[in-house]
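To illustrate the input format used throughout this study, we show a single complete record. The first block contains the structure-token representation of the backbone; no residue identities are included at this stage. The design step must infer an amino acid for every position from geometry alone.
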């Protein structure tokens, strides 16, 4: 887990042409997307299309991701962050919990940028697997250069599920995806790009990474 300092990030949405600033408290984030090996150790499941221990787990829904977070928290004796209510089609986040969780999209973008201000934290071919260099497949985590804070694969390889609803009034329960994937064109692999999908959606270029609130932060 990498320590991410507190800061301020401005999010933007091309569809609505709006932007908004968010203060981000310090937190911790996994240096890599959750791998298939790690996912299998915690869940005894191997949902991915392309098998490989060091490949990012993919073919996982938003629900799968938050269940993994809770299972990992229990494994390590931490308080689970989520109360899952499948019958109601929703989950509640206990912000006081010390367990693992998905990053918010503000946390994700702040962590991705790592203090940089451009569309990416480095030259795309050096930091990301995307359509231009991925040879139509997912790649082992950590195969490209990290950002300034030591986070790998923030752009490309697989999209990351975030906690947030995308736009509840228009899209209901759809959740935010960030980062771009191995099959995406270069314009999708930018720090500011937002994508949305239903929380039950599973596909071979969507995975996730985990976060934890810093001690004393809610």
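Output of the design step:
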């Amino acid at each position: 887990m990498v320590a991410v300092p507190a800061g301020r990030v401005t999010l933007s949405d091309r569809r609505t042409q709006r932007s908004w600033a968010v203060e981000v408290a310090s937190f911790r984030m996994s240096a890599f997307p959750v791998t298939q090996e790690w996912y299998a150790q915690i869940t005894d499941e191997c949902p991915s299309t392309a098998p490989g221990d060091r490949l990012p787990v993919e073919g996982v829904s938003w629900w799968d991701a938050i269940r993994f977070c809770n299972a990992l928290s229990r494994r390590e004796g931490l308080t689970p962050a989520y109360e899952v209510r499948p019958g109601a089609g929703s989950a509640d986040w206990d912000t006081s919990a010390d367990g693992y969780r998905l990053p918010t999209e503000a946390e994700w973008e702040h962590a991705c940028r790592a203090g940089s201000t451009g569309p990416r934290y480095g030259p795309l071919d050096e930091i990301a697997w995307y359509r231009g260099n991925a040879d139509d497949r997912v790649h082992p985590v950590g195969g490209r250069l990290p950002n300034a804070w030591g986070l790998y694969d923030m752009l490309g390889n697989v999209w990351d599920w975030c906690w947030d609803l995308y736009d509840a009034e228009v899209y209901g329960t759809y959740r935010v995806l960030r980062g771009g994937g191995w099959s995406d064109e270069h314009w999708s692999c930018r720090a500011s790009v937002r994508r949305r999908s239903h929380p039950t959606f599973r596909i071979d270029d969507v995975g996730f990474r985990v976060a934890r609130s810093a001690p004393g932060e809610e």
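Structural context for interpreting the output: The mean pLDDT is 95. The first helix runs from residue 36 to 43.
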